[in-house]
Amino acid sequence: MKKPLVPVKDASSHGKKGFEKEELEKLLEKYFGYSEFRGKQLEAIRAVLSGRDCFCLMPTGGGKSMCYQIPALAKPGIVLVISPLIALMENQVSALKAKGIRAEFLSSTQTAGIKDKIHEDINSGKPSVKLLYVTPELVATSGFAGKLTKLHSRGLISLVAIDEAHCVSTWGHDFRPSYRKLSSLRKQLPGVPMLALTATAVPKVQNDVIKSLCLHNPVLLKSSFNRPNIFYEVRYKDLLEDTYSDIANLLKFSGDVCSIVYCLERSTCDDLTSFLSKQGISSAAYHAGLNSKMRTTVLEDWLSCKIQVVVATVAFGMGIDRKDVRIVCHYNMPKSMESFYQESGRAGRDQMPSKSVLYYGKDDRRKMEYIIRNSGNKKTNSQIESQGLVEKVLNDLNQIVEYCEGSGCRRKKILESFGEHVSTSLCQKTCDACKHPNIVSTRLEELQRIPNNSNKGPQPVFITSSFAATSGRDTEFWNREDDSSFSGEEISDSDDAREVTSDANMPKISSKAGFDEKLKVLQRAEEAYFRDTGKNKQSGGLAENKVISEMLRDSCTKRLSTALDEAKKRLGNLPFDLEQSASILEMECFKKYEKVGKTFYNSQIAATVRWLFSSTYQQIHDRLQAKFGKAAVHQEKVSISADTVPILCGDTTEMLPEVTGNETKQQTVRAESSVQTEKIVLPPIPSFSQFVNQKGKEKTESSSKLHNHRSASTEKRVLELGKEPKETDHKKIKL
Question: What's the rounded Cα separation, in Å, for the pair 560 and 312?
């Protein structure tokens, strides 16, 4: 009989007085290099070490991670850290290992070998790991829940720390359903203290988090939201000639400082990065459309100061330990004050002077209001709940609008949105409204005189579940849940949640089964798949939020057309018609990734745009001519001297010199485009059952009929080869 493992003794009673301040400060200095704790850190550490639950509200950069890392060093056992981002876990685990602290993380991105080593360690009699980072999706699986129960029975779990706890609340700005399931940990791990940590939670969210996590008589610790070292400023897009140029000038005049520029759309990240690079600013894009290797490279280059600016979607930077960020820009208006505070708070975590610049546009506001209001029109099981959520999101949006369009102190508005009442004197001219009140008032008056209806007409809008849970439209905005079903390593560990059910749904086939039996099992599995998912493989088989919509295709075609126009201005008269060439380039991207989905489609569009911005005249000419021939390149076949400038596109008339000795002649060339692009209709892809049945029918056909069919086909091809090729419709060039 196997000898049972000896459980680790509980060290919650560290003497009669518990852990002394001096002991904890020694650990702090030994591993982290700080001589004393900041803010509410020591109180939170003492609370959980004494076995009490704790709710800790600290501003971004307040050192929340220290509240569970020090307890992990002070007590035996494992501290379970639940985190929403895999990038965050990787960064913190790497930093802890560099300090000599045993920390690991479990996620679907790791190889089976690494996972096995981690499980082998925690299943041993005396685990070496002190902090184990996991995602809420993994905790929700029955397989991992069973492992937690075994660890608890052996007394190996000393603390459960829930980072970004505001994700638990449906009233929070980043609600995640997987966080809601963490309430089961209280019953599953009785007697283990729980620590909930967040930097952004209004009073209503705070109460919801405490109730949802079933915290027992928790110690409530709240620090001030004030970040005195950050200067807050709002700039108005409607009053700027070029927002891209303004951002570039801001970064240039600030010197070679570490910066983050946040955008809502991946395409904007790519376009702005390209623009900044041309201005001589070291920058890189970071979003879910990039593969994991590329994102890791960008992050490492930014952390090692090889890159000055990261242009990213809003998930970037959470938990990233870069303290010297000096500028945080928002190219788009954030969806709530909580989001803005969290993102802008990534500046100046070393307490040095830093700046937050928000670029506000009335068009951004109109788009968001339209998105939010229409998200509530979709029929759901609970119309009241849906309407309540829409009203909540609208209220959040109105707060950030008031922050931008109001003339009062920016800092005061931020603090009051979190229930913290302060006087204007607290700011001490650390926002543009207090430092330059007359200039801000003048700009607001100019903003009000701008008509509400833009002359540019309505622009295509793509919405996401981050705005309203009831939304079912296509999205090009990205939050932590977006694209998790496509590649789990991007944000969340959604793959872990599927591991348990994947084996149960897979039909069991005996190794001795015959071919017919295996075929029937596979056919039944396919039928079950279509029945459960309700999706037709012949129509593409993509989830609704992955399908490349016509609206998205139109928008991307316009992007390509704009990029082609810019290339034409940069290089001169190029050999293409803008609209037709943009359509052809878009079709190339669509055909390549139609069956994969819009994630890779958008990335391919962005890559094509970047290529157009950086390519030479000859490269663009050769690509269009090689891939599409005369459908994209409208060029007359003329016999002219080598010194003659080539005649290019469209309905334009050009006067070109033809040099013969010392004599110059004038010639007029007119080229017209008559080639129309045709919509390519691909044949439907047969299902497995249809494929097998079709093969059976083909075998039963008579050989004589097959012979006649082949003969007819051969005769037809011979006739076609004998036909003369049609001449093009181009007009003759008059010299």
Answer: 21
Query: How confident is the prediction for the chain on average, in pLDDT?
Result: 74
- β-bridge partners, 668: 655
Amino acid, res. 169: S
Environment class of 137 (CB within 10 Å of its CB; exposed 0-12, middle 13-18, buried 19+): buried
Confirm if 286 and 87 have CB atoms less than 8 A apart: no
Burial class from Cβ neighbours inside 10 Å (0-12, 13-18, 19+) for residue 285 reads buried
Strand 309-312: give its sheet, edge to edge. 230-236, 354-360, 325-330, 258-262, 309-312, 283-286
Tens-digit pLDDT profile for residues 681-728: 556 666 555 665 665 555 555 455 545 555 555 555 545 545 544 444
Strand order in the sheet with 54-57: 103-105, 131-134, 78-82, 157-162, 194-198, 54-57, 219-222
Quote the pTM value. 0.57
**Domains of the chain with bracketed CATH:** 21-222 (3.40.50.300), 230-449 (3.40.50.300), 525-634 (no CATH)
Where would I find the H helices in 64-223?
A: 66-74, 86-98, 112-122, 136-139, 142-153, 177-180, 184-188, 203-212
* Buried-state track 562-598, b at ≥16 Cβ within 10 A, e below 16: ebbeebbeeeeebbbbbbbbbbbbbbbbbeebbeebb
3-class SS shares of the chain: helix, strand, coil, % to 5: 45, 10, 40
Closest by CA position to 393, among listed 419, 370, 414, 426: 370
Distance from chain centroid for Cα 103? 26
Q: Which pLDDT belongs to residue 602?
A: 82
CA torsion, points 658, 659, 665, 667, in degrees to nearest 10?
0
Residue type, 627: K
- Backbone φ and ψ for 44, nearest 5 degrees, come out as -65, -40
Around Cβ 531, how many Cβ atoms within 10 Å? 8
Interatomic CA distance for residues 633 and 637, integer angstroms: 12
Identify the pLDDT of residue 603: 79
Contact 84, 165 (CB under 8 A): no
Q: What angle separates helix 292-303 from helix 86-98, to the nearest 10 degrees?
A: 50
Q: What is the C-alpha to C-alpha distance for residues 410 and 400, in angstroms, rounded to an integer?
A: 10
| Better pLDDT: 58 or 321 | 58
Residue 428 pLDDT greater than 70, yes or no: yes
Instruction: Compute the radius of gyration of the chain from its Cα atoms.
Output: 31
Which residues make beta-bridge pairs with 236? 360
